């Protein structure tokens, strides 16, 4: 399995566990997970833009490459 597919599988598992832990109702879980996916995408874009504009950008703890 390629690492990109593993990344997305792990991400989805994390999101599902998170909504379960905080008690999001089942009928709202899809919307919340979609928002988390979008937020993760924006964060990835933000990091890529920072790296492209600043050669000294340092990844923060918890950032995924």
Describe it for me?
- The chain has about 60 residues and is mainly alpha-helical.
- The longest helix is centred in the middle third of the chain and has 28 residues.
- The two termini are about 20 Å apart.
- About 0% of the residues are buried.
What's the gist of this structure?
With 65 residues, the chain is mainly alpha-helical.
Ordered list of secondary-structure elements with their pairings:
Layout: H1 3-21, H2 26-53
Alpha-beta content class: mainly alpha
Overall residue-averaged pLDDT value: 85
Rounded to the nearest angstrom, the distance between the terminal CA atoms is: 18 Å
Uncertain runs with pLDDT below 50, 5 residues or more? none
Number of helices: 2
Question: What is the general shape?
Answer: elongated
What is the gyration radius calculated from CA atoms?
A: 14 Å
Helix content: over 70%
Q: In sequence order, what are the helices and strands, one letter per element?
A: HH
Q: What's the story with the biggest beta sheet?
A: none
Proportion in β-strands = under 5%
- Total strands: 0
Q: Main attributes?
A:
mainly alpha, 2 helices, 0% strand, elongated
């Amino acid at each position: 399995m390629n690492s990109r597919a593993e990344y997305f599988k792990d991400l989805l598992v994390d999101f599902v566990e998170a909504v379960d832990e905080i008690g999001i109702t089942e009928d709202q879980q899809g919307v919340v997970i979609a928002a988390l996916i979008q937020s993760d995408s924006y964060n990835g874009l933000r990091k890529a833009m920072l790296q492209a504009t600043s050669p000294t950008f340092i990844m923060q703890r918890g950032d995924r490459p």
